[in-house]
UniProtKB/TrEMBL annotation:
Biological processes, Gene Ontology terms: DNA repair
Site entry: Transition state stabilizer: 172
Source species taxonomy: Bacteria, Pseudomonadati, Pseudomonadota, Alphaproteobacteria, Hyphomicrobiales
Protein name from the UniProt record: Exodeoxyribonuclease-3
GO MF annotation: an example: endonuclease activity
Cofactor note: Probably binds two magnesium or manganese ions per subunit.
Keywords from the UniProt entry: Hydrolase, Magnesium, Manganese, Metal-binding
Binding site for Mg(2+): 30, 57, 170, 172, 270-271
Domain of life: Bacteria
Gene3D superfamilies per UniProt: Endonuclease/exonuclease/phosphatase (3.60.10.10)
Positions of the Endonuclease/exonuclease/phosphatase domain: 27-271
Length: 284
């Protein structure tokens, strides 16, 4: 194990670089502004060495995506940017993702940059940033439910291909009470409303596997800690970021988890990266 110095801190911070794990490591990271937190992203890439990364909340137009910096770090990318809001990207270590789809089908008038799909290293990856939906009820919540229905429809189409597929990203839903620090406080929130949790369950019922929950069935695991009310210090977190695997990938799970320490870094996103390691993949 070797060490590198973190940047962007008043004093250098030494961070251990993990040895590369066998198999394919796929991660998701809501970066909450890719250019403002580029040093955090690059440091995490150096430390964690994922093979495929899905990013959300780029908050950058198409032409301001930091492709050169990521390429220097060893990653090629496809991305779907949007000025100030949203934005998704798929990174691939040492190879170029083959873009399949830009935008979720079902509404040609939806201009939000929330979905991109690519073939990467033998897997079809759908990277998504599902709408927040607050306040609920209201127009934003209705849009969230409509978007979720479109996702469910497209997910069914992807499964019908029989290909190894993953839906990865910030789903903006806590599926169960185990995924939220105080469930009673979130009953009326758009991230925890019964309609949203039911939609997530509909996805799973199609045959998708929640990688993190499969590896940690009874453990309280979070991927998000708000900047407000010292949520990180109190460990008042939420599990919003998920990696869903099609049936052909379920038996290839080696491990899954969250790099929660990244949330404590200087200039950190309010999300931490989540990941899964797969082995012995079938061919796409």
């Amino acid at each position: 194990m070797k060490a590198i110095a973190a940047t962007g801190s008043p004093e250098p911070v030494t961070v251990a670089v993990r040895q590369r794990s066998p198999g394919l490591k796929v991660a998701t990271f809501n970066v909450n502004g890719i250019n403002g937190r580029l040093s955090v992203l690059l440091l995490w890439l150096k430390q964690a060495q994922p093979d495929i990364v899905c990013l959300q909340e780029l908050k950058a137009p198409q032409y301001k995506f930091p492709v050169a910096a990521l390429r220097a770090a060893g990653y090629e990318a496809v991305w779907h940017g949007q000025s100030r809001w949203n934005g998704v990207a798929i990174l691939s270590r040492g190879s170029e993702p083959i873009e399949i789809r830009r935008g979720l089908p079902g509404n040609v008038e939806d201009e939000h940059s929330r979905y991109i799909e690519a073939a990467v290293k033998g897997v079809l990856i759908g990277c998504l940033y599902l709408p927040n939906g607050n306040p609920a009820s209201g127009p934003k919540f209705d849009y969230k439910l409509r978007w979720f229905r479109r996702l469910i429809g497209h997910a069914s189409t992807l499964l019908a291909t029989g290909a190894p597929v993953m839906l990865v990203g910030d789903f903006n839903v806590m599926p169960t009470e185990l995924d939220v620090y105080k469930p009673e406080r979130w009953i009326d929130d758009a991230l925890f409303r019964p309609e949203v949790r039911s939609a997530y369950q509909q996805l799973l019922d199609q045959g998708w596997t929640d990688a993190i929950r499969t590896c940690h069935p009874g453990e309280r695991i979070y991927t998000f800690w708000d900047y407000l009310r010292n949520a990180w210090g109190r460990d008042a977190g939420l599990r919003l970021d998920h990696l869903l695997l099609s049936p052909t990938l379920k038996d290839h799970i080696v491990a899954a988890g969250v790099d929660r320490e990244v949330r404590g870094w200087d200039r950190a996103s309010d999300h931490a990266p989540a990941w899964v390691i797969l082995s012995h993949l079938p061919s796409l």
